[in-house]
Description:
The protein is of the alpha/beta class. It has a single domain (14-248), classed as Vaccinia Virus protein VP39 (Rossmann fold). It has helices at 4-29, 48-56, 72-80, 130-135, 153-158, 187-194, 225-248; strands at residues 38-42, 61-65, 85-88, 91-92, 97-103, 121-128, 144-147, 169-175, 199-209, 215-224. A seven-stranded mixed beta sheet has the order 3-2-1-7-8-10-9. The protein has a three-stranded mixed beta sheet with strand order 4-6-5. Helix 2 (48-56) links the parallel strand 1 and strand 2 (61-65). Helix 1 runs parallel beside helix 2 (48-56). The N and C termini lie far apart (79 Å). Mean pLDDT is 88; it is low at 1-14 and 232-237.
Amino acid sequence: MRSRVSLQKLGQQICWARNEEDVRILQLVKSRLPKRPVILDIGASDGRWTRQFLQVFPGATAFLFEPGTVYADGMQATLNSHKRLKFFPIAIGNKNGPAPFHVLPDPYGSTTVDWDGTDGKLVTVPMRTIDSLISEGAIMQPDLIKMDIQAGELTALKGAITTLPNVRVLHLETWIMQGYGAATPLLAELMEFLRPLKFRLFDLGMQYRHGDGTLYSIDACFVNEAVAKSRSRKIWSSFSSRCAELFQT
């Protein structure tokens, strides 16, 4: 059995590795985002991912969502670190109203997915859809949405069906194995859902494996090709117009 110190060091190593992967992917999609993007950090925990994002995009505006209460101190530190951050202590899903939230001994594994896990306790938290929050003016249209909500990603995307066509990038935790039972959406299901919305798989990030090496989860980045093509057409149109002006003078 590993000691508490060795487990803590292992957790730190995983955190550092994930930070490096997050920054690498953000650098790759940087050209697809505006200089001052709007992001949604869903499943924000203590705001770690938003802090990474702000290193690449210091002018960003971020809306953070986390129904768990164990991250309060870390989240407050994140909110104090930047002016354009707003926190919502709620879950994001495909409906508005109270929702069950399974709080596990390891809080990173807590989920709103309906499953038969026996660990932890069941509490009720408020849930909202992204579409409803935008329509009410509570949040702005995002350029990038990050989700790390323990198999709740597909459900949350279904609550953003009006918003997604104008989103440029999605950064999602995805599943290779059904870690939360039959309700766990696999990576292939997410790809199938996103394909008609013109999102394609752009890159893969941090991998998560069981002790025997079996891959069970992986972060995935999707880009909206419809938005990218529209942006390219606008750039080309502007360039063509400028060339025409130059040759007319």
